[in-house]
Amino acid sequence: MSALLDRIDEQTRLAGHNRLALLIFGLGDAVRYAVNVFKVLEVTPPSTLTPVAGVHPLVQGLAELRGQLMPVIALPQLLGGSPPAHPQWVVTEFNGRRQAFIVANVERIVHVDVAKLQAPDAQSGEAITGLVETPQGWLKLLDFEHVLARIIGEPPELPDAWRGRLGDHAPEVLVVDDSSVARGQMQRTLTALGAQPILLNDGAQALAWLLQASESGRLARVKLVISDLEMPQLDGYALTARIKEHPRLKHLRVLLHSSLSGRFNADLVAKVGADRFVPKFSSEALANAVLEDLSAV
Q: Model confidence over 198-211: pLDDT tens digits?
Protein backbone atom coordinates (compact mmCIF):
# COMPACT_ATOMS: atom_id res chain seq x y z
CA MET A 1 0.00 0.00 0.00
CA SER A 2 2.87 2.41 0.67
CA ALA A 3 3.98 1.93 -2.94
CA LEU A 4 0.45 2.80 -4.02
CA LEU A 5 0.60 6.01 -2.02
CA ASP A 6 3.87 6.89 -3.74
CA ARG A 7 2.17 6.60 -7.14
CA ILE A 8 -0.51 9.22 -6.53
CA ASP A 9 -1.10 11.12 -9.73
CA GLU A 10 0.81 14.39 -9.47
CA GLN A 11 -2.01 16.16 -11.30
CA THR A 12 -4.09 16.06 -8.12
CA ARG A 13 -1.43 18.29 -6.53
CA LEU A 14 -2.01 21.11 -9.02
CA ALA A 15 -3.80 24.09 -7.58
CA GLY A 16 -7.17 25.00 -9.03
CA HIS A 17 -7.86 21.58 -10.55
CA ASN A 18 -10.59 20.94 -7.96
CA ARG A 19 -9.57 17.28 -7.67
CA LEU A 20 -9.08 15.15 -4.59
CA ALA A 21 -7.23 11.87 -4.07
CA LEU A 22 -8.87 9.75 -1.38
CA LEU A 23 -7.69 6.64 0.45
CA ILE A 24 -10.64 4.29 1.04
CA PHE A 25 -10.77 2.27 4.25
CA GLY A 26 -13.25 0.35 6.39
CA LEU A 27 -13.89 0.05 10.11
CA GLY A 28 -15.54 -3.36 10.17
CA ASP A 29 -19.08 -2.45 9.14
CA ALA A 30 -20.73 -1.85 5.77
CA VAL A 31 -19.70 1.82 5.63
CA ARG A 32 -16.75 2.82 3.44
CA TYR A 33 -14.76 5.80 4.66
CA ALA A 34 -12.16 8.01 2.97
CA VAL A 35 -9.38 10.41 3.88
CA ASN A 36 -7.33 12.82 1.78
CA VAL A 37 -4.10 11.04 0.84
CA PHE A 38 -2.13 14.19 1.66
CA LYS A 39 -2.77 13.37 5.32
CA VAL A 40 -1.48 9.81 4.96
CA LEU A 41 2.18 8.87 5.41
CA GLU A 42 1.78 5.12 5.08
CA VAL A 43 -0.39 2.08 5.74
CA THR A 44 1.30 -0.56 7.88
CA PRO A 45 0.55 -3.74 9.84
CA PRO A 46 0.33 -3.30 13.62
CA SER A 47 3.62 -3.09 15.50
CA THR A 48 4.66 -3.07 19.15
CA LEU A 49 2.61 -0.82 21.40
CA THR A 50 3.84 0.80 24.61
CA PRO A 51 0.97 1.45 27.06
CA VAL A 52 0.67 4.99 28.39
CA ALA A 53 -1.13 5.98 31.59
CA GLY A 54 -3.46 8.95 31.85
CA VAL A 55 -4.43 9.24 28.19
CA HIS A 56 -7.81 8.94 26.46
CA PRO A 57 -9.06 5.32 26.69
CA LEU A 58 -9.12 4.99 22.89
CA VAL A 59 -5.41 5.74 22.66
CA GLN A 60 -4.12 2.18 22.60
CA GLY A 61 -0.55 3.23 23.35
CA LEU A 62 2.54 4.64 21.65
CA ALA A 63 4.34 3.06 18.71
CA GLU A 64 7.65 3.98 17.09
CA LEU A 65 7.11 4.52 13.39
CA ARG A 66 9.45 6.31 10.99
CA GLY A 67 11.77 6.91 13.93
CA GLN A 68 9.13 8.81 15.88
CA LEU A 69 6.85 7.90 18.78
CA MET A 70 3.19 8.52 18.03
CA PRO A 71 -0.18 7.66 19.56
CA VAL A 72 -2.22 4.83 18.09
CA ILE A 73 -5.96 5.55 18.13
CA ALA A 74 -8.76 2.97 17.99
CA LEU A 75 -10.90 4.51 15.25
CA PRO A 76 -13.60 1.78 15.03
CA GLN A 77 -14.43 2.07 18.74
CA LEU A 78 -14.47 5.87 18.50
CA LEU A 79 -17.30 5.62 15.97
CA GLY A 80 -19.21 2.98 17.93
CA GLY A 81 -17.76 -0.18 16.39
CA SER A 82 -15.73 -3.13 17.64
CA PRO A 83 -11.99 -3.85 17.45
CA PRO A 84 -11.18 -5.41 14.05
CA ALA A 85 -9.95 -9.00 13.91
CA HIS A 86 -7.12 -8.18 11.48
CA PRO A 87 -6.33 -4.49 11.94
CA GLN A 88 -4.17 -2.21 9.84
CA TRP A 89 -2.73 1.13 10.83
CA VAL A 90 -3.14 4.29 8.75
CA VAL A 91 -0.28 6.60 9.74
CA THR A 92 -1.21 10.26 9.29
CA GLU A 93 0.28 13.72 9.65
CA PHE A 94 -1.77 16.90 10.04
CA ASN A 95 -2.02 19.86 12.40
CA GLY A 96 1.72 19.44 12.99
CA ARG A 97 1.13 16.03 14.61
CA ARG A 98 1.69 12.43 13.63
CA GLN A 99 -0.62 9.65 14.75
CA ALA A 100 -1.72 6.19 13.63
CA PHE A 101 -5.36 5.17 13.34
CA ILE A 102 -6.46 1.56 13.65
CA VAL A 103 -8.77 0.48 10.79
CA ALA A 104 -10.23 -2.85 9.70
CA ASN A 105 -9.08 -2.73 6.09
CA VAL A 106 -7.66 -0.44 3.42
CA GLU A 107 -8.93 -0.70 -0.16
CA ARG A 108 -7.34 1.67 -2.65
CA ILE A 109 -6.98 5.26 -3.79
CA VAL A 110 -9.60 6.99 -5.93
CA HIS A 111 -9.54 10.40 -7.58
CA VAL A 112 -12.75 12.40 -7.37
CA ASP A 113 -13.99 15.72 -8.66
CA VAL A 114 -14.52 18.02 -5.67
CA ALA A 115 -17.67 19.33 -7.36
CA LYS A 116 -19.23 15.89 -6.82
CA LEU A 117 -18.72 15.96 -3.06
CA GLN A 118 -21.96 16.45 -1.18
CA ALA A 119 -22.57 17.88 2.25
CA PRO A 120 -23.27 15.18 4.85
CA ASP A 121 -26.84 14.38 5.80
CA ALA A 122 -28.14 14.79 9.34
CA GLN A 123 -27.65 11.08 10.06
CA SER A 124 -23.93 11.15 9.25
CA GLY A 125 -22.87 12.82 12.49
CA GLU A 126 -20.34 15.56 13.21
CA ALA A 127 -17.34 13.41 12.28
CA ILE A 128 -18.32 13.32 8.58
CA THR A 129 -17.52 16.31 6.37
CA GLY A 130 -18.78 15.04 3.03
CA LEU A 131 -20.24 12.25 0.93
CA VAL A 132 -19.20 11.16 -2.54
CA GLU A 133 -20.64 8.50 -4.83
CA THR A 134 -18.25 6.18 -6.68
CA PRO A 135 -18.98 3.24 -9.02
CA GLN A 136 -18.44 0.97 -6.00
CA GLY A 137 -20.84 2.89 -3.75
CA TRP A 138 -20.91 5.87 -1.41
CA LEU A 139 -17.92 7.08 0.60
CA LYS A 140 -18.00 9.09 3.82
CA LEU A 141 -15.19 11.62 4.27
CA LEU A 142 -14.06 11.44 7.87
CA ASP A 143 -13.20 14.69 9.66
CA PHE A 144 -9.89 13.70 11.24
CA GLU A 145 -9.59 17.11 12.91
CA HIS A 146 -12.87 16.41 14.70
CA VAL A 147 -11.67 12.92 15.66
CA LEU A 148 -8.40 14.27 17.06
CA ALA A 149 -10.22 17.00 18.98
CA ARG A 150 -12.34 14.33 20.68
CA ILE A 151 -9.19 12.49 21.70
CA ILE A 152 -6.82 15.29 22.75
CA GLY A 153 -9.25 18.16 23.25
CA GLU A 154 -9.93 21.43 21.47
CA PRO A 155 -7.01 23.64 20.33
CA PRO A 156 -5.76 26.21 22.89
CA GLU A 157 -7.66 29.48 23.06
CA LEU A 158 -6.12 32.81 22.10
CA PRO A 159 -4.22 34.35 25.05
CA ASP A 160 -5.81 37.41 26.64
CA ALA A 161 -3.00 39.67 25.39
CA TRP A 162 -4.42 39.39 21.85
CA ARG A 163 -8.00 40.27 22.74
CA GLY A 164 -9.51 43.41 21.25
CA ARG A 165 -6.45 44.14 19.09
CA LEU A 166 -8.63 45.27 16.17
CA GLY A 167 -10.18 48.08 18.18
CA ASP A 168 -13.69 49.34 17.54
CA HIS A 169 -14.08 49.05 13.76
CA ALA A 170 -14.93 45.28 13.83
CA PRO A 171 -14.16 44.25 10.22
CA GLU A 172 -16.07 41.36 8.68
CA VAL A 173 -14.04 38.25 7.82
CA LEU A 174 -15.47 35.45 5.67
CA VAL A 175 -14.48 32.02 7.04
CA VAL A 176 -14.91 28.96 4.79
CA ASP A 177 -14.30 25.47 6.20
CA ASP A 178 -16.20 22.18 6.17
CA SER A 179 -14.86 21.16 9.59
CA SER A 180 -17.01 22.27 12.54
CA VAL A 181 -13.96 22.10 14.81
CA ALA A 182 -11.97 24.43 12.53
CA ARG A 183 -14.88 26.86 12.11
CA GLY A 184 -15.34 27.00 15.86
CA GLN A 185 -11.67 27.70 16.51
CA MET A 186 -11.55 30.46 13.88
CA GLN A 187 -14.78 32.00 15.15
CA ARG A 188 -13.42 32.21 18.70
CA THR A 189 -10.07 33.63 17.54
CA LEU A 190 -11.58 36.26 15.26
CA THR A 191 -14.21 37.30 17.80
CA ALA A 192 -11.52 37.67 20.46
CA LEU A 193 -9.52 39.95 18.15
CA GLY A 194 -12.61 42.09 17.56
CA ALA A 195 -13.58 40.93 14.06
CA GLN A 196 -17.02 39.76 12.93
CA PRO A 197 -16.69 36.28 11.39
CA ILE A 198 -19.11 35.06 8.73
CA LEU A 199 -19.07 31.25 8.70
CA LEU A 200 -19.71 29.11 5.61
CA ASN A 201 -19.18 25.39 4.94
CA ASP A 202 -17.71 25.15 1.44
CA GLY A 203 -16.22 27.06 -1.45
CA ALA A 204 -19.35 27.08 -3.59
CA GLN A 205 -21.35 28.68 -0.76
CA ALA A 206 -18.59 31.22 -0.27
CA LEU A 207 -18.39 32.19 -3.94
CA ALA A 208 -22.17 32.59 -4.17
CA TRP A 209 -22.19 34.69 -0.98
CA LEU A 210 -19.40 36.94 -2.24
CA LEU A 211 -21.06 37.50 -5.61
CA GLN A 212 -24.34 38.41 -3.93
CA ALA A 213 -22.50 40.71 -1.50
CA SER A 214 -20.78 42.43 -4.42
CA GLU A 215 -24.19 43.24 -5.91
CA SER A 216 -25.84 44.35 -2.67
CA GLY A 217 -22.97 46.56 -1.51
CA ARG A 218 -22.17 44.47 1.56
CA LEU A 219 -18.82 43.43 0.10
CA ALA A 220 -17.39 46.79 1.19
CA ARG A 221 -17.51 45.55 4.79
CA VAL A 222 -15.63 42.30 4.06
CA LYS A 223 -11.89 42.75 4.48
CA LEU A 224 -10.53 39.20 4.38
CA VAL A 225 -11.40 35.65 3.27
CA ILE A 226 -10.00 32.68 5.22
CA SER A 227 -10.46 29.40 3.36
CA ASP A 228 -9.72 25.75 4.01
CA LEU A 229 -8.13 23.76 1.18
CA GLU A 230 -10.24 20.57 1.24
CA MET A 231 -13.96 21.28 0.86
CA PRO A 232 -16.99 19.93 -1.03
CA GLN A 233 -18.21 21.57 -4.24
CA LEU A 234 -15.30 24.01 -4.62
CA ASP A 235 -11.97 23.58 -2.86
CA GLY A 236 -9.79 26.35 -1.48
CA TYR A 237 -7.51 26.44 -4.52
CA ALA A 238 -10.41 26.84 -6.94
CA LEU A 239 -12.21 29.34 -4.70
CA THR A 240 -9.08 31.50 -4.49
CA ALA A 241 -8.58 31.37 -8.25
CA ARG A 242 -12.23 32.39 -8.84
CA ILE A 243 -11.90 35.29 -6.40
CA LYS A 244 -8.65 36.57 -7.89
CA GLU A 245 -9.90 36.43 -11.48
CA HIS A 246 -13.26 38.13 -10.80
CA PRO A 247 -13.24 41.91 -11.38
CA ARG A 248 -15.46 42.66 -8.36
CA LEU A 249 -13.72 40.25 -5.98
CA LYS A 250 -10.04 40.32 -6.91
CA HIS A 251 -9.22 43.07 -4.39
CA LEU A 252 -10.03 40.72 -1.49
CA ARG A 253 -7.14 39.29 0.48
CA VAL A 254 -7.30 35.49 0.76
CA LEU A 255 -5.66 33.50 3.53
CA LEU A 256 -5.48 29.73 2.96
CA HIS A 257 -5.76 27.69 6.13
CA SER A 258 -5.04 23.96 6.25
CA SER A 259 -4.05 21.07 8.48
CA LEU A 260 -1.69 19.88 5.70
CA SER A 261 1.07 22.22 6.85
CA GLY A 262 3.71 19.55 7.43
CA ARG A 263 4.05 18.61 3.76
CA PHE A 264 2.33 21.54 2.14
CA ASN A 265 3.91 23.04 -0.98
CA ALA A 266 3.80 26.83 -0.58
CA ASP A 267 4.14 27.23 -4.36
CA LEU A 268 0.50 26.17 -4.67
CA VAL A 269 -0.57 29.18 -2.61
CA ALA A 270 1.24 31.56 -4.93
CA LYS A 271 -0.02 29.75 -8.02
CA VAL A 272 -3.66 30.59 -7.34
CA GLY A 273 -2.87 34.08 -6.05
CA ALA A 274 -3.55 33.57 -2.35
CA ASP A 275 -1.96 36.18 -0.12
CA ARG A 276 -0.88 33.88 2.70
CA PHE A 277 -0.88 30.34 4.08
CA VAL A 278 -1.38 29.61 7.79
CA PRO A 279 -1.47 26.15 9.42
CA LYS A 280 -4.65 25.22 11.25
CA PHE A 281 -5.23 25.18 14.99
CA SER A 282 -2.59 27.70 15.99
CA SER A 283 -4.66 30.56 17.40
CA GLU A 284 -1.72 32.93 17.73
CA ALA A 285 -0.41 32.25 14.21
CA LEU A 286 -3.89 32.86 12.82
CA ALA A 287 -4.34 36.02 14.89
CA ASN A 288 -1.00 37.41 13.76
CA ALA A 289 -1.78 36.68 10.09
CA VAL A 290 -5.21 38.29 10.36
CA LEU A 291 -3.79 41.44 11.96
CA GLU A 292 -1.10 41.74 9.29
CA ASP A 293 -3.51 41.12 6.42
CA LEU A 294 -6.10 43.57 7.72
CA SER A 295 -3.43 46.23 8.18
CA ALA A 296 -2.56 45.79 4.49
CA VAL A 297 -6.14 46.39 3.32
A: 999 989 999 999 99
Over range 103-113, report the average pLDDT. Answer: 91
Q: Furthest-apart CA pair in the chain: how many Å?
A: 60
Query: How many C-beta atoms surround the C-beta of residue 159 within 10 A?
Result: 11
The answer on pLDDT for 255 being more than 90 is yes
Indicate whether 167 and 147 sit together in one domain: no
CB 50 within 8 A of CB 61: yes
- What is d(CA 61, CA 38) in angstroms, rounded to the nearest whole number? 24
Q: Is the pLDDT of residue 8 over 50?
A: no
Domain count, the chain: 2
Where do the DSSP E strands lie in the chain?
Answer: 19-26, 32-36, 40-44, 59-65, 68-74, 88-94, 97-103, 105-113, 128-134, 137-142, 172-176, 196-200, 222-227, 253-258, 276-279
- 164 shares a domain with 134: no
Q: pLDDT tens for residues 79-100?
A: 889 999 999 999 998 877 899 9
- Tell me the three state secondary structure of residue 252: coil
Provide the edge-to-edge strand list for the sheet that holds 253-258. Answer: 196-200, 172-176, 222-227, 253-258, 276-279
d(CA 139, CA 120): 11
pTM: 0.81
Parallel, antiparallel, or unpaired for β 276-279 and 253-258?
parallel
Select from 249, 225, 246, 247 the least CA-distant residue to 236: 225
pLDDT at 130 over 70: yes
pLDDT per residue as tens digits for the range 161-172: 888 888 877 899
Domain residues for 283?
Answer: 160-295
Supply the mean pLDDT for the chain. 86
What whole-number distance in Å separates Cα of residue 117 and Cα of residue 120? Answer: 9
